[in-house]
Amino acid sequence: MAIYTLPELPYDYAALEPVINPQIIELHHDKHHAAYVKGANDTLEQLEEARDKEAWGTINGLEKNLAFHLSGHILHSIYWNNMASPKGEGGGGEPLAADGVGELADAITESFGSFAKFKSQLTKASATTQGSGWGVLAYEPISGRLIVEQVYDHQGNVGQGSIPVLVFDAWEHAFYLQYKNQKVDFIEAMWQVVNWQDVNKRYQAAKASIPLISF
Q1: Is 69 marked within a binding site?
Q2: What does pTM read for this prediction?
Q3: Burial 27-62 (b: 16+ CB within 10 A, else e)
Q4: Where, by residue number, does Mn(2+) bind (predicted)?
Q5: Which residues, 6+ apart, have CB-to-CB distance to 170 below 8 Å?
Q6: Do the beta carbons of residue 130 and residue 171 sit within 8 Å?
Q7: 160: buried, middle or exposed (CB in 10 Å: 19+, 13-18, 0-12)?
Q8: pLDDT tens digits for range 155-192
Q9: Is 76 among the annotated ligand-binding positions?
Q10: Is 28 annotated as a binding residue?
């Protein structure tokens, strides 16, 4: 039985136009994300077989595959919900107290100096990720602050214990059919569809987590 399943999109394929066209959303979700789900489940089966046979010759590759596919599944599951229609249904702009996300807005200002400075850092981090990867706003539980991370592929260059709350997919399959090689234009456009209500929900959940590391 499969452990992981592909989540349904929280909107239809056309909901994020004109920022992301329906063809990209359909291919990205139904093909690419689905492949990560299948990859994670397949790798778990292979690990189970290795345990049963005490055959560990491929353990390094299996562990790497599990990290790759599982992280891809998790990041994409966050990504879909991090976005909302730019047509007046909650997407875009910046977090404001009037929208019920004032605590998130204050945390961004405290961690980065201002929303504008945060936006600039996450935009640059996303657009300059080497090769394939992600730009991520994450909650770091030891300091209780927000940080920006660059994720290479799906799981590299990440502070241990950090919890993603907002992710920008900078893999070519996320934008190339529409934006060609202009990754920067895609990242800039992404700000029009950020679902701050969802980001705030993830921030509040992350804050409620109890760090298991003490100094």
Answers
A1: no
A2: 0.95
A3: ebbeeebeebbebbbebbeebeeeeeeeeeeeeeeb
A4: 28, 76, 169, 173
A5: 126, 127, 129, 132, 133, 134, 135, 183, 187
A6: no
A7: exposed
A8: 888 888 999 999 999 999 999 999 999 999 999 999 99
A9: yes
A10: yes
Percent of the chain exceeding pLDDT 70 equals 96
User: Which stretches within the chain are classed as H helix?
Assistant: 22-27, 34-53, 59-81, 102-112, 115-127, 176-179, 183-190, 196-207
**Mean pLDDT in residue range 195-203:** 97
Render pLDDT for 59-69 as a digit per residue (tens, 0 to 9).
999 999 999 99
Bridge partners, 148 (sequence order): 137
pLDDT at 87: 73
- Per residue, what are the HEC states of 8-60? CCCCCCCCCCCCCCHHHHHHHHHHHHHHHHHHHHHHHHHHHHHHHHCCCCCHH
Residues paired with 145 in a beta bridge: 140
Q: Is 73 annotated as a binding residue?
A: no
pLDDT at 10 over 80: yes
